[in-house]
Known about the structure:
Blueprint: H1 2-7, E1 11-14, H2 16-21, E2 33-36, H3 38-46, H4 53-70, H5 74-77, E3 81-83, E4 93-97, H6 114-128, E5 134-137, H7 141-149, E6 153-155, E7 173-175, H8 180-184, E8 189-193, E9 196-202, E10 214-217, E11 224-232, E12 235-240, H9 259-268, E13 275-279, H10 286-300, E14 306-311, H11 327-331, H12 336-346, H13 353-367, E15 368-370, E16 384-389, H14 396-403, E17 411-416, H15 432-440, E18 446-450, H16 458-466
Parallel strand pairs: 1-2, 1-5, 2-4, 5-6, 7-10, 13-17, 13-18, 14-15, 14-16, 16-17
Antiparallel strand pairs: 3-4, 8-9, 9-12, 10-11, 11-12
Helix pairs in contact: 9-10, 10-12, 14-15
Amino acid sequence: MARKSQELPKLFVLDTNVLLHDPTSLFQFEEHDVYLPMVTVEELDNNKKGMTEVARNARQVSRFLDEIISRVKKSDITSGIPLAKDRGKKPSGMLFLQTLNGSSIPSSLAGEKADNQILGVALELQRAQPNRAVILVSKDINMRIKARALGVDAEDYYNDKVLEDTDLLYTGTRELPPDFWESHGKDMQSWQEHGRTLYRVKGPLVANFLLNEFVYQDHDEKPFYAIVREREGQTAVLQTIRDYASQRNNTWGIVAANREQNFALNLLMNPDLDFVTLLGQAGTGKTLLTLAAGLMQTLEHKTYSEIIMTRVTVPVGEDIGFLPGTEEEKMTPWMGALEDNLDVLNKSDDEAGDWGRAATRDLIRSRIKIKSLNFMRGRTFLNKYLIIDEAQNLTPKQMKTLITRAGPGTKVVCLGNIAQIDTPYLTEGSSGLTYVVDRFKGWRHSGHITLQRGERSRLADYAAEVL
Length: 467
């Protein structure tokens, strides 16, 4: 196989789901060639109607194909079409459309099924071009299993993956070694600003620091918690954080229950940060902290005019069908987490009494709007606190569509758990949440924290660990 790949470019046969997942996949195979079976084009046609993400992607692929084919003469199509996404760009590979009259579908497979027809085309290509590596690319695991069983090389589509190993995903925190101050504190400067202490440190470890990354040392007497405010070369400025674990700094009655929650509240309560991502398993406090910070900055500080909350409507079990009512009423069943956390926040004020709590609840609900992702395209949010819940189910393209809705004065907070992805063809490595965490790390106006400890109950913590 290695000898084949040296002699000729590889020939990648694309399954339809690859194109529907990433319309630009046609141009992602570098110097190698791409082969499209006719049944793939048929399936694109069948999926082009509607306003779903799949339909939009199908139409985009069709536009790409039309642009590519319109550049060549009819006689050139059979010999391959240069793949160049941009006019004037040097072609990297060739596009081939199916010209074989038949396909080698084994008798054990149903011939009318589209997947089996694609497998038959791949088998026929192997027979027709024995000196060339023919590889089927599919997001469908069962399709890849069938292909390998028939002797066809098959691969997943890897180009959309941000990280191969999500254990390497940025956590937003860094523990300082015990000898950090001895090795990096020489000629250190320190000063006070707005009640915080700042330190200018220098040394080789500093070169790896990222802006708005939290650094810490857990001492028994007094732990050191700080955030990286500036970094240039091997010099950085560390600023001590506000202690949100203290009752005097409570956020809408909520105090941080652990170190990572303290870090998260420092990000959420900082108006200079336009984009914040919080990762963590169920019960780590992502939604509660985000809502508490949002209410504090909307109702008390008047930084934002209102809170907008949205999430992907992917059911965990069987779908219950269409729901009646307005956009907000349709979204209400998906917002159980919002209701649960609002109950906690509303009960945090023991001195208000029943009447006071009822008035506060009405005030809170008047400032929180629930929106559907389906109606986000084309909108611009001004001075809003936008919460995107269950963001692990978004594709990178959907995430871009949402974040680019932010206008001046808007803060976007993305919450999610990449271990709970419910969308087909998305993995921990290719989720839109993983994508933005990796791309935004180190930007001056963004911050990220991975919450580690569950604070829901001992039962929930034990279930998350053993189940």
